[in-house]
Records
---
Amino acid sequence: MTQQETFKVCVFCGSSFGNKAIYAEEASKFGIALAEKKWGLVYGGGSTGLMGAVARGCATNGGYVHGVIPEALISRERTDEETLNDKLKKSIDNHDGSTPIPDSSQYGKTTLVKDMHTRKRLMAQESNAFVALPGGIGTIDELAEITTWCQLNVHAKPIVIYNIDGYFDNFLKTIQGFC
């Protein structure tokens, strides 16, 4: 199976670890499980927090990883290598679209994009399914948008909320109130 034929799961999650160690443990295990299943990971491109944990779990176990990161988040979410950050910053100066960044053994392929809208669109195009792990407002934004796209018949891909240790309980109650 080629990279284009590989079943790819888009994971939305936090760029921080959150307040419970179990979030990072489960994010790493999820990345490992994707690699073992020979499924690819598409994610927000960060090396920090849960994003970094899921990407490392997948990439270091032989899985395909594609991170998509907007210019505005480079310095906050991609702190793995100074040389990589230097290359990214130089790339931003001449940026006119999406820019591939050299592969990393820990984080796979990374594509630099102009903004969050482009990030979400590219992540959706590259994926066959979506999974939300714990995160903040950005994760909720991504989850809400991809769910809206499903309601509007833009896609019919599965959407899963991985409710680690009840993290999404209040969110799910709120959503049920809308129905």
Note: Residues 8-38+45-177 form a domain with the Rossmann fold fold (CATH 3.40.50.450).
---
Amino acid sequence: ESPIYQFGKVRTPTLIVTAEDDVRVPVSQGYILERALRYLNVPVQLLIFPNEGHSMANNPWHIKIKVREELKWLRQYGHTAFVKT
């Protein structure tokens, strides 16, 4: 069964990081996931890096930005405890 059918169970705040030119994981999947989580009122942020592939090796600043955003996300949501429903 595809994970797409499990969206209704998601409650965890989610940071989605994707690259515009990723051929392994198309950026469209990030948009789909973001939309589904917003529909469920799950905190979500979609971060898309332009002119990058899956490895994000084209621009070293993108890695720095990615880490900065991950740390901000963890400061906001990393302490939150979730109860299984």
Note: The chain has two helices and two strands.
